[in-house]
Specification:
The chain is an all-alpha fold. It has one domain (about 5-20, about 30-54). About 30% of the residues lie in helices and about 0% in strands. It contains 2 helices and no strands. It has helices at about 10-20, 45-50. The chain is elongated, with a radius of gyration of 14 Å.
């Protein structure tokens, strides 16, 4: 499923990098699951304002 989330492209690598910083972690695989499917309507008004979506 393809998402229109503004962070979907960057989130897996950013989460992976943050987890790899943990001393006991050697391998990270991040899977995004959009259930229920993400839509801009799920964002708060503050988040949409911050991203210039209002």
């Amino acid at each position: 499923m393809r998402s229109s989330s503004p962070v979907a492209a960057n989130m897996p690598s950013e989460v992976g990098e943050a987890i790899r910083d943990d001393p006991g972690v050697s391998d990270v695989r991040v899977n995004l699951v959009w259930s229920p499917p993400w839509t801009p309507e799920r964002m708060t008004e503050e988040a949409r304002l911050e991203l210039g979506m209002l």
